[in-house]
Amino acid sequence: MAALKGKVALVTGAGGMRGVGRATALKLASQGADVAVTDIRRGAEDLPPAEVRTEWGGIEAVAGEVRSLGRRCLPIYCDLARANQIEDTVSRVVEEFGRLDILVNNARAIIGRDRVPVTELSREVWDHFMAINSTAVFLCTKAAGREMVRLGNGGRIINIASNAAKQASALGAAYSASKFAVIGLTQASALDLAPHGITVNAVCPGSINSGRLSYWERSRAEEEGVSLDALRAGILETASKAIPLGRVAESEDVANMVAFLASEDAGYITGQAYNVNGGLLFH
Question: Is 179 a catalytic residue?
Answer without folding.
Answer: yes
